[in-house]
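QA checklist item 7 of 12: single-chain prediction sanity check.
[x] sequence parsed
[x] length recorded as 126
[x] structure emitted
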Amino acid sequence: QVQLVESGGGLVQAGGSLRLACAASGRTFSLYAMGWFRQAPGNEREFVAAISWSGSNTYYEASVKGRFTISRDNAKNTVFLQMNSLKPEDTAVYYCAAQYSISAYPRTTEADFGSWGQGTQVTVSS
């Protein structure tokens, strides 16, 4: 298992930006595909973005494509989620997740990720 700690959440006005970070420890970070999920009050947790172990492939949920960017720094064991043009409907707890995979095409369902962070709150005001 890899341990994950998110940071960077907060309160921002609509149209603003936030950058989330997720620091990993415990195992070889470059053996893991990484993902971001989010859960709004009353809703199930949903996929936001994922990145392959090397960073060569990225995947996005349709509503965030073009606004959010996932990236990783394997030398620093960290994955990022840059969120621009934020909307009130982006308000949620954001979770970082790790999937043991060296495939160039990792899976993007929640069940495929075995390690999770504690989450960080993102609130977008209108």
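[x] summary fact logged: The CA atoms of residues 32 and 100 lie 4 Å apart.
[ ] second reviewer sign-off
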